[in-house]
Amino acid sequence: MTALDVRGLVAGYGGDPVLDGVDVHVGDGEVVALLGGNGAGKTTLLRAVTGLLPAAGRVTLGDEVLTGLPTEERVRRGLAHVPEGRGVVTELTVDENLRLGGLWRHDAAGLTAAVAEQYERFEPLARRRSAFGHQLSGGERQMLALARALVARPRVLLLDEPSLGLAPQVVLSILGTLRTLCDETGLTVLLAEQNAAGALSVADRGLVLQLGAVVADRPALVLADDTTLRHAYLGF
Ligand code: ATP
């Protein structure tokens, strides 16, 4: 069954569009890597799907059409977005950041339960619950950003460059945690990454974005093994 379906997405920043009619399909429980070099349009695509950037085209979540809805409504319907740079509020504690993830919920008990669930899954956060965002390491911030998105209990998670600026060991740990999370919960993920090798090691499928269009859509193992495609598009 389809979790996220994007058809004919056109978006940009004035002038020529960055995305020129992009189609993306993500099945329920699938982890799809959205690859492409610097400036390929990965962030633009995620922002357009979330409604942070005006876009033409159709976005469907399950059987609900999201086109035209404000971001908040898209989140209510089950879309979560962890932006590039993580968006952790550095002046707030881990606990306060996590609670922000459920700000739109109107039941305090439900929010507390959702936060507690994240502490169980992400033990290092439980140990740091009173620490401020600015006191966390890069890896801890990424973990917090991920956990905060999960507090909303999304159906589909859009994750923008989680490996950016992190040491290779930390990247492995974050991506491994993500894969385990998906295996255990059936969460659907669209993972934008410049680190193609890392993303393909945990994804089911890989899409390559270039010059505003999807130029390859293959199972992750096939893409990772295809020397021609790798050299042409992925730089490894
Ligand atoms: P990166 O991995 O470097 O984040 P990306 O694939 O996410 O790259 P985008 O950030 O979506 O790429 O950028 C796509 C294009 O849009 C680039 O040419 C970029 O310069 C341009 N762009 C991005 N943000 C803006 C903006 N706020 N205003 C104008 N142009 C922008």
TrEMBL record:
Coiled coil stretches, renumbered: none
Molecular-function annotations in GO: ATP binding
Residue intervals of the ABC transporter domain: 4-236
Pfam family, one: ABC_tran
SUPFAM superfamilies documented for this protein: P-loop containing nucleoside triphosphate hydrolases
Key word Cell membrane present: no
SMART domains for this protein: AAA
Record keywords, A-Z: Amino-acid transport, ATP-binding, Nucleotide-binding, Transport
Family: Belongs to the ABC transporter superfamily.
Protein name (record): ABC transporter ATP-binding protein
